[in-house]
Amino acid sequence: MGVEEAPSGFLLTTIEDLAGYLRKASLWPVTFGLACCAIEMMAAGASRYDLSRFGMEVFRASPRQADLMIVAGRVSQKMAPVVRQVYDQMSEPKWVLSMGVCASSGGMFNNYAIVQGVDHVIPVDIYLPGCPPRPEMLINAILGLHDQIQNTPLGVNRVEAARAAEAAAMEATPTFEMKGLLR
Amino acid sequence: MSDVTPGGDQGSALTPPAGAATFEVVEVKKGMFGAHGSGDTSGYGGLVTPVAMPAASARPYGSWFDQVVDVLSEVLTDGGVAPDQAIEKVVVDLHGAASADAQQAELTITVAREHLVAVCQALRDDQDLRFELSLGVSGVHYPHDAGRELHAVYHLASITHSRRLRLEVATSDDDPHIPSTTSVYPSNDWHERETYDFFGIVFDGHPALTRIEMPDDWVGHPQRKDYPLGGIPVEYKGATVPPPDTRRSY
Amino acid sequence: MSAPAPHATRPAGNEDMSSTVRAFEAYGDGDWDDIAREAIGEERIVVNMGPQHPSTHGVLRLMLEIDGETVTEARAGIGYLHTGIEKNMEYRTWTQGTTFCTRMDYVAPLFQEAAYCLAVEKLLGITDDIPERASVIRVLMMELNRISSHLVCLGTGGNEMGATTVMTVGFTAREEILRLFEAVTGLRMNHAYIRPGGVAVDTPEGFTTQAREALTKVRGYLKQLTDLMLANPIFKARLTDVGVLNLSGCMALAITGPVLRSTGLPYDVRKDNPYCGYETYDFDVPTAKGADCYDRVVLRVEECYQSLRIVEQALKRLDHTEGEPVMVADKKIAWPAQLAVGGDGQGNSLEHIKKIMGTSMEALIHHFKLVTEGFRVPVGQAWQTVEHPRGELGVHVVSDGGTRPYRAHFRDPSFNNLQGVSVMCEGGQVADVVVAVASLDPVLGGVDR
After folding, report:
1. Predicted ipTM?
2. Are β-strands A95-99 and A126-128 bridged in parallel, bridged antiparallel, or unpaired?
3. Which of A54, C62, C319, C344 is positioned for an S-S bond with C49, CB 3.0–4.6 A?
4. Closest residue, chain A, to B228 (C-alpha)
């Protein structure tokens, strides 16, 4: 449609700024609270750590109406297909915030029952560690996501950015090859 | 001995009290460090330690325990079940208390599985016993307890008499069937499903014995000792941390 | 057996079922769907609520077969949050078990910790050796957790019915209590604070003053909640005579906690089988008569007030036992670290570090062995129950004499109470399912473990 075919240049940059601003300003999360992090997410939505300041107090139950999926809590093997299905039901543009260590990497539960990181199932845009992360940490992560969204390239710029990111990743040392940095 | 073994004297568990029946060895620990093949050169790898659960207690049990066992035997006899066939073992755990009147003292009755439903019925219905609440079924897997590997432990509570009781039933891996107590205690429904899911104990007579926690098509029974924990090694910059069940334990 | 065994979903002793159960005769040789459609002939829909649903208190899946607006069958599907915590605990030391079990029922984590530690202490035989201050702190923390758990229940219950203000008021009140938890344990949730032998660290300076101020605010918020909810005609209409489960139903399903007390039976483990010195505290066990959702809400609010009473008594005792130890005297079991807030906000106290690193090699070895290897627990099994906000939480712990639990099983009250969903919801309306489940107050972390 329109944006993908717009030529790069001043016009596209303005559209990117505007689209980024509009998209980040009222990011509606889908209710995907699974475990303990869900309680902290609810606390972040409550009146002390108000998510309504960011336009996010409306947690949509229907994934069709939501933009952001905050995977808050441990994803078990039984729940993984459900996560995938809800993610697929969300319409573009959509983002995923994996909240807590269990969603990011399996957390303290390195066993048969827990998927070791929800990024095995869905693509994640921003990871938030913590067990559970405080509501302020969640807001920090959301603001980080806002920055990402604000700076998302569109159209031709996006294709170029994706190509550049892939080239950089191919050049870079994989994490497990980086020896000696553990301490 | 207690200043050498932290947390208590382990040796006493292996000496049955005078007049008690033989104790059951539930586990034989080989080596000191749990996981094998970890390149251990300490020499403790050859250590073999048998572990036995507390042996049967001798009468008088103390407190209200004698009364419960006596009334239960009476009711069973009236119902046509021989009490010494149904009740395999009675254990009184004092847990460090001076006498069985202390609150932390516990009574455990090991029951033969054929008579489990009759015993539960007696415990629930008789007015001197009246254990109205069954607080669930807990499975335990003792792979070294030959012929009695799978234990199902029921905890009963009596609101009327303010008492707590433990029933234990054992069955083997080759024939993991235990009669279901849902006819007496309907609340054991989901607990039995869970015990089946995690240990493979089949409860005969259960209205709908299916997996409850694991996905319906899961293979294996996760909480058995021969089922691995299933973790993955965690890799980070140049180092790998093995999953917990392959790390050395003490 | 001549008669079918009585089962929870059939009326007891009622052999003539023709009045309550519709029977169909169906025969044919086609697909079951076709046969069923022919035989039943009317519109019956199966609606799947969850596991992702805003009002299922976590990842609970409810499969409802509805006929119009009436629920004819309700089944609960669980296991979507199964974490294998019990198996994981078999690979960690006894003290590390606290950090695992605390995450089961994450809304009331201190209860799992307390029950587990009490069971381990039973196995160790040190139940009578726990210092009084440690028991007082345990009671204090548990009662504060009871209040915060009930606030979550009432808050989310109100939210599910569309009353978002109830949720904001409830959660704001809870923040006061979480601030107290943070002051004592360092964390807002999932504290791992109660350890076998006592508690991890003593309460900070000025805690009792801070707590008393917070309690005044909590009372204010509780008053706001009751004003918002209890006289509201819509609230009453939605909750009265919904989800009724009478005493026989509760006893058959071994349902404990506020649901059982709403039928009139004053069964509370704190009175029946006291632990941590509960027999020395002055409090009442509220009951109700109606056994419906409205009564359970009133009951939970009343329990909050009773918990506040206990907290005040505990705070007085804290003042009296100032400076006493909070860990058992036996140094072979007591957690060695003297935790303190250092310059970077965490860590051990400097005196302890100076001692073990500077002066005594034996102390260092001792600290190291206790923390990495852990203490050994004598062979045996123990059972401990506590009065969890949702019912009776039981812990069955088996030891093989080693440094790790051989088996730790938790009888979670929500797991048991969820069996009552079918009984409570069948025959009612779909909207009442939400209210009934909210009054059972399941927390799926505890259900699935």
Report:
1. 0.86
2. parallel
3. C62
4. A112
